Structure formats: structure tokens, C-alpha cells
Amino acid sequence: MLRENLQNALKEAMKAKDMTTVSAVRLIIAGQKEKDVAARGAGKECATDAELLSMMQGMIKQRNESIKIYNDGGRPELAAKEQAEITVIERFLPKQLSEEETKAAIAAVIAKTGANGMKDMGKVMAELKTAYAGQLDMGKASALIKTMLG
Among residues 108, 150, 99, 98, which one has the least CA distance to residue 131? Predict the structure, then answer.
């Protein structure tokens, strides 16, 4: 479904001559193809939607870092371009969980995995990545897990 949405969005953007969307969707599709090649090397047919959502979250994180650098360097036009790409990428991600929903999800995963200390943090993170791919920021989730397990 995600792959079809990307292809359809690319076609629509090309018809509308929306070059910002065209370039952002092409970047996502290129990343998708890289993930597919890596998955084939690991013996799978193609990358899962969870892996693609994780890749897109990484793309957003990179762009946020670039925005900060561009703003610090006095290049607001480049920061605006990066922000426009973030807006396009976010269209393909599921609704992000609020902080309360994230805490509830973490508590449920901790209960499910039986985690009871920092040594179990990896199990909790792995389960979160599988169950909530693309729905939460793993950096923020990591900090919340440390608080809840610590």
C-alpha cells in the first residue's frame, strides 16, 4: 500500500508540476529501492513497510538537523526547502502518537516482554519498533523507556 501511494503521489506531482513533491518522493523511492536491495541480500523479497517507515523517519531526522545548520548559518531559504521536504515525507507516515499514547504503548510493551530493568531495554525497543513503526520517535521513546525502567 505504501509503495502504491508513493507511485501515485509521484504521478500526481509530476502532472501538477509540483517539483518539491516530485523530488521528495523520488528520494523516498530511491531509499526504498536501497532497502529492497539490502533485504534481498538478507534473503527477503523486499523491505517491509516497517523498515520503510523507519527509513522515512530517518530522512525527517536528517532534514531537521539540516534545518538547524542552515538556520545557524544564515541560510533560511535552504531551511525552508528542507522543511517543505519534511512536509511531503510526513504525508506518508502514520499519525504520530502523542506523549501520553507513547507512554501507554511503552508500558504495555514492558508488561508484555516482562522487562524489569535496564538490561531489558533492547527487548522493549525491538518490540516498539515492530509494533509502532513510523508512529513514534525512537529517540524520545528511548528516554521514556530509561525513565520507566530505571
Answer: 108
